[in-house]
Specification:
By secondary structure, this protein is α/β, with parallel strands linked by helices. Helix content is 29%, strand content 17%. The chain has 13 helices and 15 strands. Helix 6 packs across helix 8 and helix 9 packs parallel to helix 11. The protein is elongated. The structure holds alpha-D-glucopyranose. Alpha-D-glucopyranose (GLC) binds next to loops.
Length: 446
């Protein structure tokens, strides 16, 4: 009986690697659950490009610098003040639940001591050490999930087809053997990463350079899943992954896909660029984060550490400001689902998992000390300020006994409860939220 039970419980895990898991299967929902609830992740672009402060990989690909000069940055990548434990703590403090780090960008520079090729932090950079493993360890120690960014293209590798935007080394059809060698090389690296770190997320990039067949997508996927059945793969494996990755542009309309994550820089650059001072303010970062929450997605906010391993002050400040806000409002962030349409409240909202609590996000100080909800049919049992506890009064207007129209709910928001960034009001309903959706018609009786 016990063996039978164990087999029964393990079956979904045993089946997963061999069969394609459908997106509505229970196994799939379970595997995506932590991701759906996490809301905030921190992206890290760290590589030799931080030395000169130029764009990651693209600077030589687009001919802003020669490949030779780009590679000279290896000498400046010291990681001298690198403190992975501090990084992990800071990420934790921000309120993020996971972090995704560039194990290898398009330039082919690997942060770990890969036995495939020589272009890595240990063998060729001034750091002379593996800078990935200690970070993954620190993340795990701090109870954060681990995401590994991996670029499929490797523009520095002689085995790879593309070198720069103008120079292509070869065409696969002309030299399939060379391409096979490249596949062994990159898949070997993936296998190392999978074995070493068992990532919770695989964050692929650069899939646009080849098609599914050329990349060997099914083989790669099944290899990753057999090493960790619960691993989550982003959509940049030729759309064969688990969630969408809009980049930089906050979705204006609520995305259709169930799982998505906006990846976004704090300034204009992914990696460290000393001349880029075009930072979003903490308020603006939180604006965007709140928007992601209200549309049911995650924010993957990027930092770009310097070559010595320190994190720029502006970035630390944003992470800390975020942290103060997320800590106070954790109930209204993690595990919530997308809120109600804007017609019912002119701003962002979120709902608790069971849809009985409506979280109303108030960005500014209401002029008359009130915020309005429209068309909420439920009875409201209580209204309070998240992270503050103060009860709030409310009043209903335009509700008449002869109509089912629920009226307008005005909630008093005194100045004393206003938060620096967003005040969050929890509206506890008598059951699942019920919204009035009739076009208001003729008088029913009078
Ligand atoms: C783009 C760029 C890359 C960056 C990534 C982050 O795909 O190629 O430089 O790392 O976006 O999402």
């Amino acid at each position: 009986m016990r063996t039978f039970l164990i087999i029964l419980l393990l079956t979904p895990f045993m089946l997963k690697a061999q069969t394609e898991i459908t997106q509505d299967s229970i196994f799939y929902k379970q595997k995506m659950e932590w991701f759906k609830e996490a809301k905030l992740g921190i992206f890290i672009h760290w590589g030799i490009y931080a030395v000169n402060g130029i764009s990651e990989s693209w600077s030589f690909y687009n001919n802003y610098i020669s490949h030779e000069d780009y590679m000279k940055q290896l000498k400046g990548f010291t990681a001298k003040k690198y403190d992975p434990e501090y990084w992990a703590k800071l990420i934790k403090e921000s309120g993020a639940k996971y972090s995704v780090i560039t194990s290898k960008h398009h330039d082919g520079f690997a942060l770990w001591n890969t036995k495939y090729g020589n272009l890595n932090a240990v063998k060729q950079s001034a750091a002379k050490k593996d800078v990935l493993t200690p970070f993954v360890k620190a993340l795990r120690k701090n109870d954060l999930n681990v995401g590994i960014y991996f670029s499929l293209p490797d523009w520095s590798s002689d085995l790879y087809t593309n070198y720069t935007r103008d120079i292509k080394r070869y065409k696969i059809e002309d030299d399939p053997k060379r391409w096979d060698k490249f596949k062994k090389y990159y898949q070997g690296q993936l296998k190392e990463l999978a074995t070493n770190y068992k990532p919770d997320i695989w964050w692929f990039d650069g899939d646009w350079e080849h098609n599914d067949k050329e990349w060997d997508v099914p083989k790669v996927k099944s290899m990753l899943l057999s090493s960790n059945p619960k691993t989550i793969i982003n959509s940049r494996l030729r759309q064969k992954g688990d969630y969408d990755t809009p980049e930089q542009g906050l979705p204006i309309m609520k995305p259709k896909s169930k799982y998505w994550e906006l990846c976004m820089t704090m300034n204009e650059s992914w990696g460290y660029q000393h001349s880029d001072n075009h930072y979003k303010s903490s308020q603006q970062v939180i604006d965007i984060f709140v928007d992601c929450i209200s549309k049911g997605g995650n924010l993957l906010l990027d930092i770009g550490p310097k070559a010595d391993g320190t994190i720029p002050d502006e970035q630390v400040k944003i992470l800390k400001d975020l942290g103060r806000w997320t800590k106070k409002h954790s109930k209204a962030i993690y595990g919530t689902q997308a809120g109600i349409p804007y017609e019912y409240y002119y701003g962002p909202t979120a709902l608790s998992k069971d849809s009985t609590l409506l979280y109303v996000y108030v960005r500014d100080i209401p002029k008359d000390g009130k915020v309005a909800l429209r068309g909420i049919k439920n009875k409201i049992n209580r209204i309070y300020v998240v992270g503050n506890g103060a009860m709030l009064e409310h009043d209903v207007f335009s509700k008449v006994y002869w109509s089912s129209y629920p009226g307008l709910t005005y909630i008093d928001v005194p100045k004393a409860v206003i938060d620096k960034y967003y005040t969050v009001i929890a509206v506890l309903l008598d059951g699942k939220i019920d919204l009035y959706d009739k076009v208001h018609g003729a008088i029913e009786s009078n």
